[in-house]
Amino acid sequence: MSLFDLGGKTAIVTGSSRGIGRAIAMRLAEHGANVVISARKPGPCEEVVKEIAAKFGEGRAISAPANISSKEDLRRLAETTNQRFGRIDILVCNAASNPYYGALGGISDEQFRKILDNNVLANHWLISFVAPQMVERKEGSIVIVSSIGGLRASPVIGAYNISKAADFQLARNLAAEFGPHNVRVNCIAPGLVRTDFARALWEDPKYLAGHNRRAPLGRIGEPDDIAGAAVFLASKASAFMTGQALVIDGGVTIV
């Protein structure tokens, strides 16, 4: 058996109708997992389900739309997955929000709360709905998609970076709590990736040119550059890894 074989496993991936989440869902399915596609809008979720069915077989994916700002939506997401596949083995908390671009001095309380609620509290909620069965089975992998922003300061996405730093600590704390039950919790920390979410950064020619000059690999990431890390963290290949953060940034943080 391959260390990366996910056959018979079921994964929830939030924010998986596009971008990094979609790439992760596709690669998890490619390695054998059943995948639950979740985002706010049903239509884009169904499109990903159809693509997985065409590539990897009917019944391998379902659509379960959910708004991460709604605790009840996230509860239903977990319940729907259990009803369809009978279990949840892998959870990838990928969905996030950033409604503000600018200095922290200009952010409204509502915007700051939305960032913290959607990027930290929502992860806590969904994990709380999924983790008990993993703890009972003494097996499971939880992956939080954070960001290198959680390791650095920024004059324009400071609140977002604060939330991503909190995600690192959320993973560490849960890893300590769940570790005795063989449930692992890790983070992925992408750098700048060509997604709609980060469009304000990579569509800025000056910012992009500066980024690429500094990056040892000389480019920004693509969604599929991140997906392999999720497969690794979901699989037996990472069985002795928990509470950690995999930085995938083209080398930006080393220079």
Structural notes for this entry:
The chain has 255 residues and is an alpha/beta fold. It has a single domain, classed as 3-Layer(aba) Sandwich (Rossmann fold), CATH 3.40.50.720. It has a 7-stranded parallel sheet with strand order 3-2-1-4-5-6-7, sandwiched between helices. Helix 4 links the parallel strand 4 and strand 5. The longest helix has 29 residues. The model has no long low-confidence stretch (mean pLDDT 96).
| Main sheet characteristics | 7 strands, parallel
Task: Spell out the CATH superfamily.
Answer: NAD(P)-binding Rossmann-like Domain
**Element pattern in H and E:** EHEHEHEHEHEHHHE
Rg (CA only): 17 Å
- How large is the count of helical segments? 8
> How far is the first residue's CA from the last residue's CA?
39 Å
* Residue share in β-strands: 5-15%
Instruction: Count up the domains.
Output: 1
Q: What is the C-level CATH assignment?
A: Alpha Beta
Shape: globular
CATH topology: Rossmann fold
Number of strands: 7
Write the layout of secondary structure elements.
Blueprint: E1 10-14, H1 19-30, E2 34-38, H2 42-56, E3 61-63, H3 71-85, E4 90-93, H4 109-137, E5 140-145, H5 158-178, E6 183-190, H6 199-202, H7 205-214, H8 223-234, E7 245-248
Parallel strand pairs: 1-2, 1-4, 2-3, 4-5, 5-6, 6-7
Helix pairs in contact: 1-2, 1-8, 3-4, 4-5
